[in-house]
Write a structure and sequence with these properties.
Elements lengths: L2 H25 L4 H4 L10 H16 L25 H21 L8 E4 L2 E4 H27 L16
Antiparallel strand pairs: 1-2
């Protein structure tokens, strides 16, 4: 009876893992200067996107059933500022958010899919919260990949199957 629920949770963990892997393979191609580079004034850098994803995942997935998904210690606006940060600090925030998510996903049971959780004033099912979080994360991962590809130019190493013209 709970087989589909366990399969769903496993699929969600795999989908998040795929997003993390793609982002990290793109990020690995950047030096710190490119990590903080922006296309223009007011635009997000890869570093800012990493900081935002890390902060968001930590806030949403730390104790999801016993505390609000919008933690009081989260500085969401500060996630969109990278002045004074270095690559190591950004990576710690990124890793912290992903670790929080991964530990929570590993702890979930089939019965948890029927439990509500809160994000701000909105009660959500675990399924809805996972969908929302995955969509949000994937959107920003796409931005990271696009920026990394732009900054690398001809040195970009594709993350998927290369075009025929790109094969060695």
């Amino acid at each position: 009876m709970n087989d589909w629920k366990l399969e769903y949770l496993a699929d969600a963990a795999t989908a998040f893992s795929t997003q993390r892997s793609a982002a990290e393979r793109a990020i690995a191609q950047l030096d710190d200067a490119a990590l903080f580079r922006t296309a223009g004034t007011g635009d997000n850098s890869v570093a800012v996107l990493m900081k935002h994803i890390g902060g968001n995942l930590r806030s949403r997935w730390a104790e999801p059933f016993t505390s609000d998904g919008e933690k009081p210690d989260r500085n969401r606006d500060g996630e969109f500022e990278a002045a004074g940060d270095d690559g190591a600090a950004i990576r710690r925030t990124w890793d912290s958010g992903w670790t929080t998510l991964e530990e929570t996903l590993a702890s979930l049971t089939a019965d948890d899919l029927d439990r509500p959780l809160m994000i701000g004033v909105a009660p959500l099912s675990l399924t809805a919260a996972l969908h929302r979080s995955l969509a949000h994360t994937a959107q920003h991962v796409g931005q990271i990949i696009l920026l990394a590809k732009q900054w690398q130019g001809a040195d970009w190493r594709t993350l998927s199957i290369p075009r025929r013209s790109e094969k060695p």
